[in-house]
Design a protein that fits this description.
It is found in: Mitochondrion. This protein is α/β, with parallel strands linked by helices and about 400 residues long. The chain folds into 2 domains: about 40-175 and about 365-395, Medium-chain alcohol dehydrogenases, catalytic domain (Quinone Oxidoreductase, Chain A, domain 1); about 180-345, Rossmann fold (3-Layer(aba) Sandwich). It has 14 helices and 20 strands. It has helices spanning about 1-15, 30-35, 50-55, 85-90, 95-105, 170-175, 180-190, 220-230, 245-250, 265-270, 285-290, 305-335, 350-360, 380-385; strands at about 20-25, 25-30, 40-45, 55-65, 70-80, 110-115, 115-125, 140-145, 155-160, 165, 210-215, 235-240, 255-260, 275, 275-280, 295, 300, 340-345, 370-375, 395. The longest helix has 30 residues, at about 305-335. It binds NADPH dihydro-nicotinamide-adenine-dinucleotide phosphate.
Length: about 400
Amino acid sequence: MVLTRCILLSASAAKLGDLALCSVRGLTTATATANACYGKMSGWQIHSYGNPQEEVQFSDGIKMPTLKSPTQLLVKVKAASVNPIDVAMINGYGASVLNTLRCKDGGIEFPLVLGRDFCGEIVQKGLGISSRELEVGDEVWGVVPVHLQGCHADYVAVEKYCLFKKPSNLSKIDASAVLYAGLTAWSGLYLTGHLGDLLGAISPVGGGRGKKVLVLGASGGVGTLAVQMLLAEGVEVFATCSADAMQLVSNLGVHYLLDYNDPTHVQSIASVGRFDIVLDCAGKGTEYASEVPWLFDQYITFNSPVLKNIDAHGFGAGMYRNAAELVRSNVTALNSRQGPVKWGYFMPAPQGIAYLQRLVEKGKLLPVVEKVYPFAKTLEAYERIEQKHLRGKIVIDFE
Ligand SMILES: NC(=O)C1=CN([C@@H]2O[C@H](COP(=O)(O)OP(=O)(O)OC[C@H]3O[C@@H](n4cnc5c(N)ncnc54)[C@H](OP(=O)(O)O)[C@@H]3O)[C@@H](O)[C@H]2O)C=CC1
């Protein structure tokens, strides 16, 4: 069994010409190919929670993931993005809930590999996947649900619903930078915000025509993609960012852009009238909805306190606080003629990937990539996320 896997992986990796030696943190390591023959791979992992500088370690002896169901595939990662949640998870964010889910799925808490979205090549597939769906050798893009071992390692095992063929008009770097942030924006706008049906509302004239959406934090990973999705729908897009990001966001095509450090921006936005959706991609949270005088049908924030409250107070008391916060924000908002305040979440849904794929293929969605780090400098990529003020996405190039 071990021998079979070794041959499969070798054949595929050799096709990639992956025979050079690489050096990580001063250690000379054999390639992914050679490692794989011994059931081992290289990657970055943590053994306990803390800060990235102390906890994130490179290893070339990580156990290769194995397929646990007939609908799983093994992917050799070529590029992966780094998201704020990776660094938050190193700090222990969501540990109670995520670890419960992980253990329920037969996993263990440590060592833990971070990394949620990637581009790569299929090297092995389960028996439940037909050749019409996906084949060994296909270039793919995909996501890993947050409670599972991530993709900041040579190989990652994923269920087929998390994996699609990579759009041919995207480079591997760009392809690795879309899905986590893009599925967050998609889920906020369509699952939570009902902007259209699950596959979007795209029509020749734009299904969102006549609608007004305000995007807070349009300069970050989620914001830059949310803006492009809304523009593709024909929505009138208002956005906020800081002064140094205005050129970047304006190049995306937003209709009205405001510097959130300018104290007059709150009143300027209030004078626009009612928004169909205010989408908070800036981490402002639920309370902010009642602090501003804006009118909206819905305020959707991705800064949900759910996991944080459960981490801090346990499941029962944490959920009580979550419900109390949501009720409080909604009562205040509704009293001020505002609409409901909701939480939005990343959702690894195939409908969302299909939607994003369609936009990319139509040339309507392209990620903004701030910087690409080589695999050997993954720790620096985590440090860049810690510094905040991101302009689009941070990517790790494995090749
Ligand atoms: N619930 C979920 O499942 C998920 C939640 N998230 C959350 O969504 C948010 C966005 O994620 P992501 O895009 O990856 O994060 P980023 O850090 O990439 O983007 C945040 C952007 O917002 C800008 N910003 C900060 N403060 C403000 C402000 N007051 N007004 C307007 N812009 C501001 C930042 O730049 P600058 O500071 O220079 O202005 C930065 O460009 C984060 O809070 C993240 O934690 C993300 C994914 C999934």
